[in-house]
Amino acid sequence: MSGQTFIFCLGATKAGTSWLFDYLYGHRDCHFPAVKELHYFDALEHGTGDFYRKQAQARLERARSDRPTRWQKQLVADLERWLATFDGKTRDDAAYLRYVREGGENARLIGDFTPAYGLLREASLKAMAALTDKVRFVYLMRDPVDRIWSNIRMVAGAGGQTALDAKVDGVLNGTADNILDRSNYRRTLNRLTRAIPRDALHIEFYERLFTPAAIERLCAFLGIAPQPASFDRVVHQSAKAALPMGQRAQLQAALKPQYNFVEKFMGELPTEWTQKMVSA
To answer: CA-to-CA distance for 124 and 130, rounded, in angstroms?
Structure first.
């Protein structure tokens, strides 16, 4: 379809990407596969396709065993199509694009929500930007400490305070690379701004995402009309646990370069971030 826009949502993880996917998935002007997080470009860059295929296969088996709702049937069909489309190793951008577009040829917006794309190098980002004649990127940022704490609670699972403390220690001593990487807003935004035109990038703060004003800004950027959103709907909420003030102060100090960069890049830090900061 002439004028169709392709969106990449790059994350960050635990910054509202699942909620935003659900909103756009249900939007009358949009079409997305039911499979969030295709991991196409990161599998090619990092050689992790076998891992993600195993994840997709396991998800397919779970979906087949779930109650056969309309959503589950679509998820099963889209997972089967994706596993048949991408072997995890062979680059075929045309096949990837056909997969994403299938059934949505008349939609104004199609795309791929994979937060891990925020870790990609410039070469991959440039390839993504050249996929069609109209590609747009959306990057969501959450207060770095809150994002990491939510990520820690997700990966620690039911391990209790001991598991939580171990993950915090891993962040502070630099061994929890995966968690730290996903809060490296400086690296991601520097790579994005070198790889794509600035007007092709939309940045939103998690703390402001769930508002009509944020949705209006996003929809204007994507060229679609805003429609009502369920702002109170919680998607993939991590287990609840309070972050001790001492650990917040330590994490805040460790992440100071990220706060400084965002302030310089955006012109200011959102008040939703600064009001949580612990005085040194």
So the answer is: 10
The residue behind tokens 């997305």 is: 32
Residue 223 CB-density burial (10 A; 0-12 exposed, 13-18 middle, 19+ buried):
middle
| 91 conformational bin, left if phi > 0, alpha if psi -120 to 50, beta if neither | beta
Q: Report the alpha-carbon distance of residue 246 to residue 278 in Å, rounded.
A: 9
Distance between CA atoms of residues 174 and 237, nearest Å: 25
Name residue 67's amino acid: R
Alpha-carbon gap, residue 189 to 68, rounded angstroms: 41
Return d(Cα 25, Cα 29) in angstroms, integer.
9
Q: Among 45, 43, 41, 36, which residue's Cα sits nearest to residue 16?
A: 36
Judge whether 15 and 7 are in contact, CB under 8 Å. Answer: no
Give the model's pLDDT for residue 238. Answer: 65
Residue whose structure tokens are 């990491």? 148
Q: Looking at residue 10, what DSSP letter applies?
A: -
Cis bond before residue 12 (omega within 30° of 0)? yes
Residue 182: strand, helix, or coil = coil
Element (H, E) at 216: helix 212-222
**Are the C-beta atoms of 96 and 127 separated by less than 8 Å?**
no
Angle at 116 between CA 13 and CA 83, to 5 degrees: 120
Average pLDDT for runs of 10 along the chain of length 280:
85 89 96 97 98 97 90 95 98 98 96 96 98 97 93 80 88 81 92 97 96 97 95 74 92 94 96 88
